Amino acid sequence: MFAYIKGKLAIKSTDYVVIDVGGVGYKIFAPTSTINKLGEIGEEAMVHTHYHVREDNISLYGFATAEELRMFELLIGVSGIGAKSANTILANISPSRFALSVITNDVKELTKLPGVGAKSAQRIILELKDKLKTEESMQDSNMPIADDSFVPNDTLSEAVSALQVLGYPQREASKAVSSIDTTGLSVEDIIKKALAYFSK
Prior knowledge:
Blueprint: E1 4-12, E2 16-21, E3 24-29, H1 32-37, E4 44-54, E5 57-63, H2 66-76, H3 83-90, H4 95-103, H5 107-110, H6 118-142, H7 154-165, H8 170-178, H9 187-198
Parallel strand pairs: 3-5
Antiparallel strand pairs: 1-2, 1-4, 2-3, 4-5
């Protein structure tokens, strides 16, 4: 319903902000990572938003980047994870690190997050990897992936897969990774540079 909200920052609290748009104040729940990136009261602010509807509650959730929004929407699609839990998780891990943890089956990294036990971490990995496999099979059946200039190796393939977890099609993810000088970079650094490429 709302792709983003842009206006004057009216209130900045510990778990939400209020953005004034033409005299209407929108209360938007957000992870601390997003709140910390916003400016001071009275300055212009913009957040990517998710309109969250439940039988007993309608809320807006806001995020500094499209990747954080995508990660939030993926998390609330996992069995047993609600909007508040997803918000807490987002406050404690970057989208690049989260995607890499999913791709590499890093249960230990995910269990460091508040409210995420071993079973929850395994469920996150299983459900999101299954989603990734489904999307890949749909792409394979609909159109061939052009080889372009991208020559995969283990590190680059992990980076591409992690970008797919964050919602980027395989073709676009491959193109972004191919455009980066990856010499000496870790997988997470490659992902971060690719996300910067997408934000241009």
